[in-house]
Predict the structure.
Amino acid sequence: MIDELRGEIERLRAQTRPLEPDSNQRRELGEQVLNHALNFLDQVEDAPSLRPASVCLSFAQSGISGVKPSSNNRRPMEPAK
């Protein structure tokens, strides 16, 4: 029984080994994640989510899409609490 369980553990260990990336793979994945995040943050200034709610809601009610509000409609971000 113990030998069967040990064999099962070794079989499962061998099957799951590919799920844990090695150091080089972790570095490559980490670089991809960082680049993705930085690319996203570079676009945040123009992202529609920065529009004030009044502007977003007026667009939704009027059926207008793809219209950018003027920069004076933007509110400064509040500091985190």
